[in-house]
Design brief:
Layout (H helix, E strand, L loop, with lengths): L4 E4 L11 E5 L20 H10 L7 H8 L7 E7 L4 E2 L2 E2 L1 H13 L3 E6 L8 H11 L2 E6 L2 H10 L4 E5 L9 E4 L2 E5 L10 H4 L10 E5 L5 H8 L2
Parallel strand pairs: 2-3, 3-6, 6-7, 7-8, 8-11, 10-11
Antiparallel strand pairs: 1-2, 4-5, 9-10
């Protein structure tokens, strides 16, 4: 299966800050993601408008995308997939496509990161993701709740993030559950902090789990999923 991509060299997104960001067509999202149609922030609003347009640009394929990455400023920060996920075949990550992205990222010494809802236990997904992280491209496992995040962090040597309900933080910036430390995304409570400042999600060897409080117009549905 082939996918379409887009690349914005300098984003005006308030959360990321002025860094390069990309989108991948919506068919890249795995069917196993429970947020599809039930709380995904990217399915409505301005993000959705841009995301839907990506699917219509068949000429912006993986060849186009890696060539575009080669034009980014050396050493700059890059968030892959504001919306969308990694190329796959029925939930099995396409190792060749991901390797090409990693190669392009490393060639420009980009501080690059992304997230994936693809199941690590499917096929060789975990090995493919481990290779990407070791190779210089931080790919975070996206969990749907605290329990799954703990399971991921215990089973895989991969960076993990998860969604949580607003009640999880109890007014604090971090929480510890079953010896796993959850750190709240600083951009949620500090207007002065953006991805370009924080960079925590771009650290592949970190031990902490980054928690994102459910948000968007469907946050009530997402909160139900976050409760596990």
């Amino acid at each position: 299966m082939t996918y379409s991509f887009s690349l914005t060299r300098i984003s005006n997104n308030k959360k990321t800050g002025p860094i390069a960001v990309s989108y991948t067509s919506s068919d890249s999202c795995p069917g196993t993601c429970p947020l599809k149609g039930s709380g995904c922030y990217a399915e409505l609003g301005p993000t959705a408008l841009h995301w839907h347009k990506v699917s219509d640009k068949a000429e912006q394929n993986i060849d186009w995308f890696v060539n575009e990455l080669d034009t980014l400023k050396r050493g700059s920060m890059f968030r892959h997939n504001v919306a969308g996920d990694l190329p796959h075949d029925d939930g099995y990550i396409q190792s060749g496509a991901l390797e090409r992205i990693v190669t392009a990222v490393v060639a420009r010494s980009l501080k690059a990161f992304t997230y994936t809802h693809h199941l690590p236990e499917r096929g060789t997904n975990a090995l493919i993701l481990a290779a990407a992280n070791a190779g210089g491209f931080t790919v975070n496992l996206s969990a749907n709740n605290v329990h799954q995040a703990i399971a991921y962090a215990s089973a895989y040597r991969l960076p993990v993030v998860t969604i949580v309900g607003p009640e999880f933080w109890q007014g604090e910036k971090s929480q510890t559950v079953k010896n796993k430390t959850f750190v709240r995304c600083p951009a949620e409570y500090l207007d002065s902090v953006q991805c370009i400042d924080c960079k925590l999600c771009a650290v592949p060897e970190r031990q902490t789990i980054v928690g994102f409080t459910v948000h968007g117009t469907r946050k009530k549905k997402a909160a139900i999923i976050a409760k596990g």
